[in-house]
Amino acid sequence: MPRSIATYLRIALSLTWLVCLAAPVLAAEPVEVAVSGIEGDAQDNVRRALELPHGLVRDGKVDRLWLERFARQAPEKARVALQPYGFYRAKAAATVRQGKGGKTLVEVVVDPGEPVRVVEVDLKLAGEGAQQKELRRQADAFPLAAGQVLLQPSYERAKGTLQAQAQALGFLDADFPRHEIRISPDLATARIHLTLDTGGRYYFDGTHIEGGAEYPDVFLKRFIAFKEGEPFSYAKLGETQLNFANSERFRQVVVTPQREEAKEHKVPVLVRLTAAPRRTLRPGLGYGTDTGGRFSVHYRDLNLDHGGNDLDTSLYIAERLQGFAGRYTMPSASDLRSSTSIQLNLQRETVSTYQSRLAAVEIDRNFGLGRGEVATPYLKIQQENYKVANVNSQSRLVLPGFRFSKDRFNDLVRPTSGYRVSLDLRGAHQYFGSDTGLVQGIGNASVLIPIPGRLTFHARANTGYSILTDPLADLPPSIRFFAGGDQSVRGYAYQSLGPRDAAGRVVGGKHLLVGSLELERALFKNWGVSIFDDIGNAFNDFGNVDLKQGVGVGAHYYTPVGGLNLYLAHPLAPNSPPIRIHFTVGFEF
After folding, report:
1. Helix (H) or strand (E) segment spanning residue 400
2. What is the mean pLDDT of residues 488-502?
3. Residue 334 class from Cβ within 10 Å (0-12 exposed, 13-18 middle, 19+ buried)?
4. Starting at the edge strand that comes first in sequence, how are the strands of the sheet with 250-257 ordered?
5. What is the pLDDT of residues 210-244, one digit of tens each?
6. Which of 10, 107, 144, 329, CA to CA, is 20 to 30 A from 117?
7. Residue 29: pLDDT band by 50, 70, 90 thresholds?
8. CA atoms within 13 A on the CB side of 524
9. What is the pLDDT of residue 22?
10. Cα–Cα distance, 13 to 585 (Å, whole number)
């Protein structure tokens, strides 16, 4: 690699890192307030109480009369601001002097004195829910106890949490008939008297659905997250609204508990639906460095046969990939997360390492196991004609398999925390109609961790392992492993890494190991920059693994439908291009 290019890349990495860590620089005010004598949250509260009033500084000039008035009021404001943190005998003094650079400095010196300490906590639970384990556990975790400093923010938070816990359990009338803090400033003591009366427990009554008449009633009831007679829960109402909204079948969803119509503590629920168009036809233009320029047409019918069945088809034409994909999904009558589907995939792919024409049919059954968990047994039958390393061949495979995935992200468009893990086990044998025999496992994992300073750490790993009864040459490209590309080892061309034949041509491998570390810094509202390090390769023997590495920088722009990601990657391998550009749309889970 030429020295000049290496130097430019190091400069780019350094500048990107500085941008990641840089904090916004604000214009300096001509008046500064300095608070001393107290630390932590109490000091922060005093600072907030002593924010400069509007009009004290105009056009960069200080109004001296306002400044003197502010300085006179500062000690009392500081004393009041310290009381929530237990300091009821605090003293404060304020002075005004000229600081460096012509800046006016208001110095507030605080003597907090002895803090008020709690000597008694009388916390009682009353009502029908007084013996609920979750509620008693929350009461036992009350943060203030005898001997501790009286912290009123902690007291208020604990009160709110206790009441919210009672309401989450269905005790909607939960309230505090008694909530007292008796403070003796002279003795520096406080006594807390708190009683939560839960009242009676509420339960779900029947659910009435308005709108959505074009869908069968049994289909709509799948989205309701509660049953009649269960304890009332706002969380269940929120889950119900999310279920309807995520189905993409309704433009507007309003779930309303009709508490005013409750009888004998039974709350009916009204669901109002405004249906979205059942059929959509969307053309699309795009570009990806793995596929080149592309054009697609996507057609979807969300209510085929008026039974809620989903027909989803796509026709796509790109420089290196062309094909048709169709999926017909029949939802389970009893479980929202379960379904049966049939898929058809016709595809032609031409890359530097191989050419492939594939026709595949898959039947699968999806079982929703919990939040974000899906288990899928499937049967896939495929016919593939291919050319690898100037060798033409064809393959027929009957692949029974099992997939499992679990994911949880805080946002699907611009996630900053969460994880995803998936596992795919599949096999083939001549006894079941395949040309060859194999057992193959594929695992993927991805995790996002937020870091202070608007940073996000992203790590991912991709693995593959194969046991073959026939030579690798008998397997089609869709079953072999390759590395390199936008979602693999950046810095290398798509599918360009893997074992080579005697002539030096990449032919793919039996196993795969790929890992990636990336650190992103959010900028402004919709932008971000990152640095990354990718490593991995495909191979045939664990004793002879040649891992390739790529490093670089990225720029990200986030839109309501997904992110636009531009990467400049440098492959750490001899005789490689110094820089490779990668462009992707969306976040790869």
Report:
1. strand 391-409
2. 91
3. exposed
4. 203-210, 266-275, 250-257
5. 988 899 888 999 999 999 999 999 889 998 998 99
6. 107
7. low
8. 8
9. 43
10. 23
Q: What tokens were used for 585?
A: 């749309």
Here the tokens at position 509 are 């491998």
pLDDT in tens, 156-177: 999 999 999 999 999 999 999 9
Q: What is the 3-state secondary structure (H, E, C) of 432-471?
A: HCCCCCEEEEEEEEEEEEEECCCEEEEEEEEEEEEEECCC
Amino acid 11: pLDDT: 46
Q: Which are the contacts of 290, defined by CB distance < 8 A and separation ≥ 6?
A: 320, 485, 486, 487, 494
Q: Which amino acid is at 482?
A: F
Tokens (6 digits) for 148: 């501790």
Is 127 within 8 Å of 265 (Cβ atoms)?
A: no
Between CA 493 and CA 358 the distance in angstroms is 22
Strand 31-36 to 104-111 pairing: parallel
Decide: 161 and 98 in contact? Cβ < 8 Å.
Answer: no
Q: Which residues pair with 354 in a beta bridge?
A: 388
Q: Which residues share a beta bridge with 521?
A: 455, 529
d(C-alpha 16, C-alpha 531), whole Å: 7
Pick the closest to residue 495 from 395, 383, 351, 304 (CA basis): 351
What is the number of residues in the chain? 589
CA distance 118 to 128: 29
* β-strands 339-350, 321-331 pairing: antiparallel
φ/ψ of 530, rounded to 5, equals -150, 160
d(CA 107, CA 71): 9
| Residue 589, pLDDT score | 44
pLDDT for residue 587? 53
What is the CA 473 to chain-centroid distance, rounded?
41
What 3-state class would DSSP assign to 249?
coil
- For the record, the structure tokens of 54 come out as 């509007």
Cα distance between residue 481 and residue 467, in whole Å: 13
Q: Please return the burial class of 177, using the count of CB atoms within 10 Å of its CB with bins 0-12, 13-18 and 19+.
A: exposed
